[in-house]
Amino acid sequence: MFAVFKTGGKQYKVKSGDILSVEKLVADLGDKVRFNQILALGGNSPSIGTPLVSGACVEAEILNQTKGKKVIHFVKRRRKHSSQRKKGHRQDLTILKVLEIKSDQKIDETSNFEILGKILKQVKSSSNIKETFNQKNTTPKSVKKSEVKPASTKNAEVKPASTKNAEVKPASTKKAEVKPARTKTVQKNNSTKTKIEKSTTGKKSVKASK
Question: Across residues 193-208, what is the average pLDDT?
């Protein structure tokens, strides 16, 4: 079942258990409030108000009073260079939780919402808290022994060192072949050589040497 109610000039569609933020309500934390302006109800027997549904209301709990995100308001006049204004704004909001949707209540439709009172939460007394604390400490804790697996008794297979002697190749006994020096004789040119000797008289004498 869902309902559409009006508050702060806005409309909200909710169902029981929803958490939403609305415009700020004058109420304290933990207060139980009731919204009377219900516009429509949904579910097995839906009904639409004209403009409100008579006898319908939404009950909620105030969770927190907070502010929304910051909004920048900037104004600048184009033809006046020194005329500009910048402001920030954060809207006040109220966070509430929807508890129940009712359709057969006697309500005052002229008022937007009503404060019904405080929601009393069950708080344990100090004696009960101490008893529960002592019980927790006295009860032995079950200690699980860590399962330790026995070490494996298999001896690691160690391969024996290879006893094969390294094959050493004997040094080659071949003597280096020394090539004999070349014995080629230079053939003398048997051509006749002319010796020119200057005589004392200044004439050249030619002797042929064989």
Answer: 47
